[in-house]
Amino acid sequence: MELRVSVVKRVCLFFFTIFSLAGLLCGPHQINAESPLVGELSIGVENPLNVRLAEPPRGLVADKQLGLLRHRVLKGQVLHTAKKGLRGLFETRGVRTPKGDLLLMFPEGNHYAAGSGKVNDMIAYRSSDNGKTWEGPSIAFDIDYSQHGFIPLIPRGSKRIYAFGTQPLPSKYSREKGRHENTPIGFRSSDDDGHSWSGVTLIKPKNDPRFLGMSVTRMCETDSGAWILGSHAADWSKNPLITRQYILRSEDKGNSWTLLPGKRPDGWFSPNYDRMDEGRPIYMGKGEVYFMARTPTGRIWESRSMDDGKTWADPKPSALVHPDAPPMVFHLSDGKTLITFHHNRHINTQYVGLTGKMDGMRDRAEIWISLSKDGGRNWSEPQFLFTNVTRSNPAKNGWFNHNSSYMDAVIDGGTIHLFLPHLWNRALYMHLEEKDLAKLPTAKKLARRLAK
Predict the structure, then answer these.
(1) CA-to-CA distance for 135 and 123, rounded, in angstroms?
(2) Judging by beta carbons within 10 Å of its beta carbon (0-12, 13-18, 19+), is residue 270 exposed, middle or buried?
(3) What's residue 360's pLDDT?
(4) How far apart are CA 281 and CA 289, in angstroms?
(5) Cα–Cα–Cα angle for 369, 377, 360, nearest 5°?
(6) How many Å separate Cα 7 from the centre of its chain?
(7) Strand partners, 417
(8) How would you write 284-350 as a 3-class SS string?
(9) Contacting residues for 22 by C-beta, under 8 A, at least 6 apart
(10) Residue 240, preceding peptide bond in cis (omega within 30° of 0)
């Protein structure tokens, strides 16, 4: 029996290698494909700016390949387009590996919560020359169940990469009673720069061992070595749905965990909407951890811990305008300045059901940046980076037609590497230099350029 299994594995490996080599030789999928663009659009909600793509404001470029109206300092390419017949591709997440490669992963197929069984594969791309060329696609995790996203962590002083995330093992969670998004949270590890991975270790918090939730936003490590990961639990049996935001914290490199602010159902939520989810902790040094979370209120909400993530202030709205979408915040190369990529718009209608028919899904089309030099207490005036200008597909709903959200970044050496699941169908790789951030226009500057 063992011999038979070994032969089958070798045959599968042979064909997988052949197909992977074909992908490497051909390069990224449909890299030269161009998207049909709209003729004109409005940027922003308050005092909207009407832009004709034939005459974009100075500094902006209508990019047919990317399907974006972007600032000229932002360059990019289409790395991957979801194979025909598949639902799409989902959260793109990248990391700088210990050996210096850029490693990108994302699920392709259907969303893990869309159906029981295996509905997607985790796809990987790798660049060994800082994003100039890419190898892929390959299968990152050869497992018999679906994935949600790749949350990377490389502990300080280590060459081991961890891959945290939602783990919908069929035997470990139920799709009944509106809890189909709630699964165990777990992690894998790689000691060979992300080429192969261990089996999964599931997180069972000491104060809530049966915790089920979902995690797909970035995590962090503190100077003490504590690991801090956001996770939320959703109940879709309620109408509208309700969510509760939690934090998972480990002091012993993942051997044991504590659920904060307490065991279920005592998670955080916005009182007006009974929701808070997709929280992102980021370490600020000297025991301070800043936390940002998604809500339907029109603002990113925030919390802060001053004791290494052990206790937290009650979350409150930040100044950042943002729709029902996750925070996207990172350190610049100095390790101190924060940059947030936010949508900077909120239509404020239908933010209760979270469906693809909501007109508010258009709010996910635009990306603006703001900077903070004081740990998120104050943010600079938003500056425009890009917006989706791909013509909508009437066969798809707004969830697909507008998405420029869930973007990820690797920022080092003065370069900002961006990974975007554009329209939930294409993985875009883009980059710009930190020194060029000052060239991005505010809404006032865009208005003056349009007036000319």
Answers:
(1) 11
(2) buried
(3) 76
(4) 6
(5) 45
(6) 38
(7) 410, 431
(8) EECCEEEEEEECCCCEEEEEEECCCCCCCCCCEEEEEECCCCCCCEEECCCCCCEEEEECCCCCCCC
(9) none
(10) yes
Query: What are φ and ψ of residue 18, in 5° steps?
Result: -60, -45
What are 190's two structure tokens?
Answer: 């790689």
387 pairs with which residues across the strands?
69, 366
**Which residue segment(s) compose the domain that 18 sits in?**
2-451
What is the rounded CA–CA span in Å between residue 305 and residue 291?
Answer: 8
> Which sign, positive or negative, has the C-alpha torsion 136, 137, 139, 145?
positive
**pLDDT tens sequence across 46-57:** 899 999 999 999
Give the CATH number of the domain where residue 224 resides: 2.120.10.10
Q: Mean pLDDT for the chain? A: 91
Cis peptide before 265 (omega within 30 of 0): yes
- Residue 82: both structure tokens together: 């979801």
| Of 174-188, 276-290, 352-366, 397-411, the least confident | 352-366
What number of helices (H) and strands (E) belong to the chain?
3, 29
**CA 299/CA 44 separation, integer angstroms:** 15
pTM of the predicted model as reported, rounded to 2 decimal places: 0.92
Per-residue pLDDT of 373-431, as tens digits, reads 999 999 999 999 999 999 998 888 878 999 999 999 999 999 999 999 999 999 999 99
Average pLDDT of span 310-325: 97
pLDDT in tens, 211-251: 999 999 999 999 999 999 999 999 999 988 999 999 999 99
* Residue pair 226/247 in contact by the 8 Å Cβ criterion: no
The b-or-e profile of 133-167 (16+ CB within 10 A means b, else e) is: ebbbbbebbebebbbbbbbbbbeeeeeebbbbbbb
| Joined tokens for residue 267 | 């998670």
Amino acid at 188: R
Percent of the chain with pLDDT over 70: 91
Our count of domains for the chain comes to 1
């239509």: which residue's tokens?
A: 347
* Nearest alpha-carbon partner for 57 in 40, 35, 82: 40
